[in-house]
Amino acid sequence: MSAFYIPSDNISRLSESATIAVSSRARALRAAGRTILDLGSGEPDFDTPEFIRRAAQDAIDAGATRYTATEGILPLREAIAAEANGRTRGVQMVTPGDVVVSTGSKQSLFNACFCLFGPGDEVLVPTPGWTSYYEIVELARAKPVPVLGDPARGFKVSVDLLERAATSATRGLILNSPCNPTGAVYSREELSAILELADGKGWWVIGDEIYRHLYYGEGGPAPSLLEVAESREKLVVIDGVAKAYAMTGWRIGWSIAPHALATSMKALQSHVTSNPATPSQYAALAALREERLAHAAIAEMRDAFRQRRDAALAIFAEMEDMRVVAPDGAFYLYVGVGEAASPDEEDAGTVFARRLLDDYGVAVVPGSAFLTPDWIRMSYAAPLEDVVEGATRLARLYAAGSGMARVVA
Question: Is 90 exceeded by the pLDDT of residue 203?
Answer without folding.
Answer: yes
